[in-house]
Amino acid sequence: MATKQTLDIDYTKYNFRDADTSYEYKFDKGLTREVVEHISRIKKEPDWMLQFRLRSYEHFTKRPLPAWGGNLNTLKFDDMLYYASPTEKKSRSWDDVPEYIKQTFDKLGIPEAEKKFLGGVGAQYESEVVYHSLRDDLAKKGVIFTDTDTALREYPELFKKYFSTVIPPEDNKFAALNSAVWSGGSFIYIPEGVSVDVPLQAYFRINIQNMGQFERTLIIADKNSRIHYIEGCTAPIYSTDSLHSAVVEIIAKPGAHVRYTTIQNWSNDVYNLVTKRAYAYANATVEWVDGNLGSKLTMKYPSIYLLGQGAKGEILSVAFAGKGQHQDAGGKVVHLAPYTTSRITSKSVSKDGGRTTYRGLLHVAKGAKGVKSSVRCDALLLDEYSRTDTYPYNEINEDDATTSHEATVGKIGEDQLFYLMSRGLSEQDALSMIVMGFMEPFIKELPMEYAIELNRLIQLEMAGSVG
Amino acid sequence: MPKTLEIKDLHVSIESKQILKGVNLKVAQGEIHAVMGPNGSGKSTLANTLMGHPKYKVDSGDILVNGESIVGLPPDQRAKKGLFLAFQYPLEISGVPLAQFLRSAYRSVKGEGQQKTETKGVGGEMISALAFKKKLEEKLKEVDLDPSFTKRYLNEGFSGGEKKRAEILQMAILQPAIAIMDETDSGLDIDAVRRVAEVVSRMAGPEMGVLIITHYQRILDYIKPQFVHIMVDGRIFQSGGPELARVLEEKGYEWTEQQTTSTAN
Ligand SMILES: Nc1ncnc2c1ncn2[C@@H]1O[C@H](COP(=O)(O)OP(=O)(O)OP(=O)(O)O)[C@@H](O)[C@H]1O
Ligand SMILES: [Mg+2]
Question: What backbone phi and psi angles, to 5 degrees, belong to A94?
Answer without folding.
Answer: -60, -35
